Amino acid sequence: MERMSFCIRGAAIGLAFVAVSAQAEPQIYSLDELQQLARQQAWTEVITHLQDVSPAERGATWQALVDQAGVAFLKSLTATVSLEDIIGVGKGLALQYPQLVNNGEFTAIYLAQAEQYYAPCYRYGNAACTYEYAQTLAHFSAPADLLFQQGQRALKQVSSTASVPFFVPAVQRNANYCQEADVAKGVLETLALPKHQHYQAALAVATQHCRDHKLAGAEGYLKHSSEVQEALCPSYLAQGYVSGISKKVCELIAG
Hints:
The protein is mainly alpha-helical. 71% of the residues lie in helices and 0% in strands.
């Protein structure tokens, strides 16, 4: 699917939209004039002229205007342009004005559109696409429950390894997800593939982010997978998470 080039092309669309719009209107606006335009709800003009304000004047008033215009402009796009353009423009705005990723209303609008945009990723089992979606959710400060749900979806519809990029930020934001069987399955099956691009992320979940929790079913993998043994034995021995045969195996590996 062509839409899977979002990360580069989508951001370019967003930045180009703002840049081209600004070039089409050479007039330079002051902060007071932009506030007046905001009162008139001229959001396209406001959003394309925020950079007119000099850095020295970009205090609390300007920052509040960025939030107000960013939210209003993105909301207006949902009724007028395609999902692809919304995703591209929203990404571009967030790159140009990083404070927007911490704006709850802006991110809620953006993430609702992103969920629709990335739905085909799962339908077609496209792991590269779901990875882009996971990166988008993490960048826009998606809540842990949404990250976990999409990780479960990737696990069931795409692959175990495809779930890891969702589960990493999920457990970072809420360690209770470390106890979930689906998190353990995605992480452990990825640890059995040392050359996989998400191996290090899976290892970080098992030995850092979820250090205080033993992954569900870990001992079964430790008995049968030398790759998982190499990945987990040092940490699991230190934490006292292994016993019986698994402990003996790990002790042999440790030498």
